[in-house]
Amino acid sequence: MGLFDRVGRLMKANINDLVSKAEDPEKILEQAILEMQENLVKMRQGVAQAIASQKRTEQQYNQNLVESNNWQKRAELALQKGDENLAREALVRRKSFQDTANALKQSLDTQTGQVDTLKRNLVQIESKLSEAKTKKEMLKARSRAAKAQEQLQGMIQGVNSTGAMAAFERMEEKVLMQEAKSQAAGEIAGSQLEQQFQLLEAHSDVDDELAQMKAMLAGGSQPTGALPPGQASSTPQATAPVDAELEALRRQLNQ
User: What range defines the domain where residue 170 resides?
Assistant: First the structure.
């Protein structure tokens, strides 16, 4: 029995869990309101029947009470006329109607109490139904807001968990890297341009110096630092290597 009880309890728990997950608050609220309205209709019908029964009992009570009074008057009339037998018969009839009226009065009192209770219950049910309708709209709005919030959180989690955001971040990093490379290339290009201008300026100084040397050699003037007359003078054989070196330097500068 212990095993069967555990299996039965497990099945009930699983079924209850499935039912709980399948419940839609909005649909359940609508169904609850419909059931309350149906119960209210039945309650009104029951109250109406109770009131009708009360009215019928009240009518019967009044009728028997009237008949009892009538036979009382007839008995008095018969006794006044000296007919005791007829008066006795009239009193028997009066007692019968009076007994019936007394029984109907007890039933009427009971029915009156029941009708009053049913009326109070009906008012309470109507009030609860009105309150439930108001709460239903509020709960439906809260349920929709909760669903929307849950869907939004699911979307946010989905974005964070998928590769879309990671791909976006990779592309952003790639663009930043490309910008950094472009900036570095620009800086390198500027540095190379500066070096080229510095080289041109250096070549310009060499050309100026070479031109000055040519002018000095062509004009026979002695450059600064040359040997004074009387000392070792340059001979054609001695200046030949210098001319060759100057010619090589000229070709190198032209290139």
Answer: 162-201
Neighbour tally for 223: CB within 10 Å: 10
Q: Is the dihedral of CA 231, 235, 240, 246 positive or negative?
A: positive
Helix, strand or coil for residue 24?
coil
**Residue 75: is it exposed, middle or buried by C-beta count within 10 angstroms (0-12/13-18/19+)?**
buried
Q: Looking at the chain, how many residues does it have?
A: 255
Domain count, the chain: 2
- 34: which 2 tokens? 């419909």
- In angstroms, the CA 205 to CA 194 distance is 17
Determine what percent of the chain falls in helix, strand and coil, rounding each to the nearest 5: 90, 0, 10
Q: What is the pLDDT of residues 140-181, one digit of tens each?
A: 777 778 778 877 777 666 655 556 667 777 788 888 888 887
If asked whether residues 112 and 33 sit together in one domain, one would say yes
pTM for the complete prediction? 0.47
Could you identify the residue written with the tokens 């009240």? 58
